Amino acid sequence: MKQLLTSAGISNPSIHNALVDLLGKPIAEANALFIPTAIYAIAGGGDLARRVINGSLGDPFCEMGWKSLGLLELTALPSIKEELWVPLLQKTDALLVGGGDCQYLTYWMQLSGLAALLPSLLSKIVYVGLSAGSMIMTRYGTTYGNHTLPGETDKSLGLLDIAIHPHLDHEWFPNNSLANLEKLAAALPMPSYAIDDQTALKVTDGTIEVISEGNWKLFGQ
After folding, report:
1. Which domains does the chain have, with CATH numbers?
2. Are 133 and 142 within 8 A, CB to CB?
3. Whole-structure pTM value
4. How many Å is the maximal CA-CA distance in the chain?
């Protein structure tokens, strides 16, 4: 299993080097697919997706000089044949999963069939998460609410027995102070990583390494 779980993307040289190490090749020689689905569940999501793709919002993610970059829209997958999109994954080196709403992303991961494929894919593909795209790999996810999703929809996939709290002390997220995240972590039954936008978790076969040029804190270890 190979994952790079970021708060805000490939924000510094240390995280960039960790990505190259997981890929086993330069980014210019690697093919990537971007999943924007989670962002549609928040206000202005369509424009935010555009800005992430063209690199005008946040840290580098899609616009990094990939050999090729494609889009994989999860909401479309249930209505098309698997032979039209599964081969794309099999030729991909990195799966870039953007931020937004964890519950909405988890729902479409499961309904599309991608969630069932992930355990086998992650032996070959590097999963690169951004914010919610990182959180859904853990046992803890969040939601902006008010979605028309059926029943008790999961908020994460639970592949890692941890929680990730991104955007530590970010000005856009006033509730993400270290003190607030410590209180949240104390109520959770698993270890929690509070990470700022200069920090990522590098996961290789279940081993977690913190890659940081910023601030982070592990609670409940």
Report:
1. 2-219 (3.40.50.880)
2. no
3. 0.95
4. 48
